[in-house]
């Protein structure tokens, strides 16, 4: 395997999510490189739908190339994926196919009515990532761990949905289920006007509670992973859950700003988790 190909995947992950990059940087090789490849492909899939003008492929081209992976060329992701599947033969291709199907749904299904519909979508675009990572982060195929990985992915996607309400609205999408809005007395008209009021805050708080429920399920058996993998999972979950606090600190105004976790807050989470796992108190970030 050309090391430069794996480095390009690493660079894409480092550029796309410094939080995830830091969270998984403690993994030993080749687990670490495998996470870089999975992240890079998922990033390219996501960009093919959300940023089509700057994406190297359309989502349909990605599907076709992935289906004929052994012959695919023209981009570093294809040899990287071939390395991934040869290095981790227990890794199945089905979650990757489902991930792409979930992104294709974004092209036509843009209004969610129920939490059940939203959960199905969250599984396709994020729960599948948990399934992809499972054979990379641990050596056994544990069904409880698989379910937990899916749960964590669903929780993370719910955080994305909370944070990106305004951004998604500008793209013509409403992931916030209508049944939640109606339950809290918040209308579609208020949503389109970007009104942050008590009913809207109640909507986001309900979604926040749902996300935290999935996080709790997702971390139930983290202790059964190799310690480096368990620490990486906890770090990723902590970084993501902290976005919810950032949204609250911003007054739930997800229409006009994108909430971020400060570097200082990330550093505290990072050190706290690393110390608990390793006992090392002087951590270089």
UniProtKB/TrEMBL annotation:
Pfam families: SQS_PSY. CDD domains: Trans_IPPS_HH. It comes from the Bacteria. Pathway: Carotenoid biosynthesis. Keywords: Carotenoid biosynthesis, Transferase. PROSITE patterns: SQUALEN_PHYTOEN_SYN_1 (PS01044), SQUALEN_PHYTOEN_SYN_2 (PS01045). This is 4,4'-diapophytoene synthase.
């Amino acid at each position: 395997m050309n090391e430069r190909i794996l480095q390009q995947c690493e660079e894409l992950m480092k550029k796309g999510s410094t939080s995830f990059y830091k969270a998984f940087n403690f993994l030993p090789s080749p687990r670490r490189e495998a996470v870089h490849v999975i992240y890079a492909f998922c990033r390219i899939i996501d960009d093919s739908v959300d940023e089509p003008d700057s994406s190297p492929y359309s989502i349909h081209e990605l599907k076709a190339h992935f289906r004929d992976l052994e012959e695919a060329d023209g981009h570093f992701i294809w040899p990287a994926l071939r390395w991934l599947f040869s290095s981790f033969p227990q890794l199945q291709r089905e979650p990757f196919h489902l991930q792409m199907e979930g992104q294709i749904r974004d092209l036509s299904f843009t209004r969610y009515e129920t939490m059940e519909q939203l959960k199905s979508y969250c599984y396709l675009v994020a729960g599948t990532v948990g399934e992809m990572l499972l054979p990379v982060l641990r050596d056994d195929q544990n069904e409880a761990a698989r379910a937990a990985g899916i749960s964590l992915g669903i929780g993370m996607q719910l955080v994305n949905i909370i944070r990106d309400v305004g951004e998604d609205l500008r793209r013509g999408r409403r992931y916030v289920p209508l049944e939640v809005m109606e339950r809290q007395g918040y209308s579609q008209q208020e949503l389109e006007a970007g009104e942050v009021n008590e009913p809207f805050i109640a909507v986001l708080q309900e979604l926040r509670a749902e996300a935290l429920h999935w996080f709790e399920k997702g971390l139930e058996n983290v202790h059964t992973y190799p310690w480096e993998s368990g620490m990486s999972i906890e770090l990723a979950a902590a970084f993501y859950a902290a976005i919810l606090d950032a949204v609250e600190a911003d007054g739930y105004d997800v229409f006009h700003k994108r909430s971020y976790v400060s570097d200082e807050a990330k550093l505290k989470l990072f050190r706290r988790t690393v110390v608990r796992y390793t006992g090392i108190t002087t951590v270089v970030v």
